[in-house]
Design goal:
Blueprint: H1 6-18, E1 22-27, H2 30-33, H3 46-49, H4 52-55, H5 58-63, H6 65-81, H7 86-94, E2 100-105, H8 111-115, E3 120-122, E4 125-132, E5 138-139, E6 158-162, H9 171-182, E7 186-190, H10 201-208, E8 212-217, E9 229-232, H11 235-247
Parallel strand pairs: 1-2, 1-7, 2-3, 7-8, 8-9
Antiparallel strand pairs: 4-5, 4-6
The structure holds 2'-O-acetyl adenosine-5-diphosphoribose.
Length: about 250
């Protein structure tokens, strides 16, 4: 028997969605690629050119706050210059179609929120938020891109509110995400290599709890053998196709 075509696979997913009460969409850097935000592990990804331990790490920040601040300012600038893509908008549209729906994202780029998604768990923080490591006060850095360290009035260094290697995930976000993953009917894993834990537990928890797990990715990943279906293609193309069929 030949493998099902992409259209046949999408029809299967739409069938599952037509009886689903609760849907979760788990996303990674790939969902923002078509907006122009680089991923981490693709051949042109950030971690091919840069060392995570020199940038996404608290000790690295203390050792060289200028360099880390400059890098995050650069990423914040990119993120503010780009726009959400059809994949983000399709996900925001899905929220209106189901009784229970949420996004669980590893992305810090704020693009889901800008596309209109309301219910979202941010597992790795958000680059829009920044705070002082000493007094913990939030600082609004909108439009302020710096190539040197930024200091609070109290003298403390300002850092982005993102999760660095070796740090805990925000516990409320993680607990909410686990509960959603364990209680959904259909779970999408979109644009993620699914190798960074504990975030990568989400599709596993969903599948173990009986959800139908759909992967959307341009390539096969660590998750593919575990997902019920892998839809191969760009999320900005596949997700709008699903929404279109759901509306018919
Ligand atoms: P990765 O860079 O590891 O993976 C991106 C995935 O997106 C890959 O599997 C690509 O095949 C896929 N992809 C690329 N373009 C796509 C497209 N147009 N449509 C669909 N899929 C596409 O990024 P993440 O899985 O998000 O953590 O990485 C996880 C975490 O590792 C990040 O949150 C970050 C990083 O270190 C922290 O900073 C804590």
């Amino acid at each position: 028997m030949s493998n099902p075509s992409l259209i046949e696979q999408i029809d299967t997913v739409v069938e599952k969605l037509s009886i689903a009460k609760s849907v979760v969409v788990f996303t990674g850097a790939g969902v923002s690629k078509e907006s122009g935000v680089p991923t981490f592990r693709d051949k042109d990804g950030l971690w091919q050119k840069l060392k995570p331990e020199e940038l996404a790490n608290f000790n690295a920040f203390l050792k060289n706050p200028d360099r880390v601040t400059e890098w995050y300012s650069h990423r914040r600038k990119i993120m503010n210059e780009v726009q959400p893509n059809p994949g983000h908008y399709a996900i925001a549209e899905m929220e209106k179609l189901f009784e229970k729906f949420c996004v669980i994202t590893q992305n810090v780029d704020n693009l889901h929120q800008r596309a209109g998604t309301k219910k979202i768990f941010e597992l790795h923080g958000n680059l829009e938020r920044n705070y002082c490591i000493k007094c913990k006060k939030l600082r609004d850095l909108k439009g302020h891109y710096s190539s040197t360290a930024i200091k609070c009035e109290c003298g403390g260094l300002i850092r982005p509110d993102v999760v660095w290697f070796g740090e805990f995930l925000p516990q409320d976000q993680y607990a909410g995400a686990v509960a959603a993953a364990e209680n959904c009917d259909v779970f999408f894993s979109v644009g993620t290599s699914a190798v960074v834990y504990p975030a990568a537990n989400m599709p596993i928890y969903a599948r173990q709890s009986g959800a139908f797990v759909v992967e959307v990715n341009v390539d096969y990943t660590e998750l593919s053998h575990y997902a019920n279906i892998t839809l191969l293609g760009k999320s900005g193309e596949i997700l709008p196709m699903i929404i279109k069929k759901l509306r018919v």
